[in-house]
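Workshop exercise sheet. Pairs work together: one partner reads the sequence aloud, the other fills in the structure field after running the prediction. Swap roles for the next sheet.
Pair: D.N. / O.F.
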Amino acid sequence: VREVYPDMNLDVALRLMGHRAFMPVVSRTRSGKLLGVLTLEGVRRAYGLLRRGGAPRCRGRARTGGARSTR
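Structure field:
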């Protein structure tokens, strides 16, 4: 089982997480002491990327795929 540490860079932790639903966050100094659990939903919520009810929030404008004028 992989684990992450509270002082670990979030990008590194998410890469280690891969397709797992969660990763245990453990102490570096106290071997095996569980401090919490990292979840993708928790990260999205912390950064304001989830609506209430857990639905992902859209960022930016939707692309229409149409051609742009070059005038």
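Discussion prompt: The beta strands are 22-26, 34-39. What would you look at next?
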